[in-house]
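Quick question about two entries, pasted in order.
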Amino acid sequence: MCVCVCVCVCLTHRRAAYAAEDAVTRLEKDKLKQDFRIDDLQNSLKSMQQQLQLYTAQVRVRLCVRVCACVFLCTGIPCSVV
């Protein structure tokens, strides 16, 4: 094999290695972006679950107050639940 062909083969392999390295770098960056997006979504989900718990508790309190008000209005007996 002549020197010219050998150098050409080496350059081709080097270029392929650089291209593969660039592809891996891009994939790693994309994975990091996905990881950050997943973290953001998990944080949003946690926040929404906390809001749901708060709203559920508020609805229960309001319902209890209304029931106690109805009991008092209907019977004249104060409700001791509240």
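Here is the second entry:
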Amino acid sequence: MHPVERIGYRHQMRDALVESPQTMPAFSQSVRVPAHVLVRQLAGESVLLNLQTERYFGLDEVGTRMWTHLTSSVSIEAAYQNLLEEYEVEREVLRRNLSDLLDHLLANGLLDVSAE
């Protein structure tokens, strides 16, 4: 297990970060990468580019692991459980960090909520 207290991600966008008017999806839901988003990973970090808005978002190694679990798990809850097993972190800290990251990704069109 890897210890972690704060999930890191960098906002490297042309314009200010878009605030989310939507509500947070339930952890029972899943997310998917829209067709208009390009993802590139290098040395454990990621850059996500929204081709429609031309905004990009940088993820550090832990943020990239969160992204990987979110986009490959059957639900947000499954991603959360996998991350709990992978990192030494308090449950509520991880839930808050995962929710914050999801909020930013959804608000900026980098993820979509899949139909249940």
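Reply: The chain is about 35% helix and 25% strand. Residues 8-19+28-113 form a domain with the Outer Surface Protein A; domain 3 fold (CATH 3.90.930.60). Hope that helps.
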